[in-house]
Amino acid sequence: MAATKDPRPCSIADTLALVGEKYSLLVLREVCLGNNRFDQLVRNIGAPRDILATRLRRLVDAGILTKEAYSERPQRFAYRPTQAGLELEPVLMTLMAWGDRHLRKDHDRPMLVQHSCGSELAPVVTCRACGDPVRHEDLTARPQADGWTVAGPTAA
What we know:
Elements lengths: L10 H9 L4 H9 L5 H8 L3 H13 L3 E7 L4 E6 L1 H4 L2 H15 L44 E2 L2 E2 L3
Antiparallel strand pairs: 1-2, 3-4
Helix pairs in contact: 2-3
């Protein structure tokens, strides 16, 4: 097998490089809940102010959040999710459901999310083509990056 210095090309890794830093997804959680002002974010997330400011700047620069002035003196901003940010909300719901199942007992879940149908949300990833739930045993990975197979880099 050829030695490579570069890791496998991966959209998961690219996404984590952007939103995988501590507090980034929690910022998105709060903004999706409607808590969009800096002081609300500091209080609800518990992040140090300087780190939170850095995360917000990065999420705005990446097009995940927008920043809108709501006060000129002193200058203050509200943060809102863009379409790209809203597309991460199902990821948040899936992470929350996993944490509820594997890290908490049913009676101590800190939040329930209700769907517009009136039922508690139980997120399920489904195949867009057939509508079936996604299960590990039904998946086949097909690497598209040159020089890579499922097992790793190909020989030179």
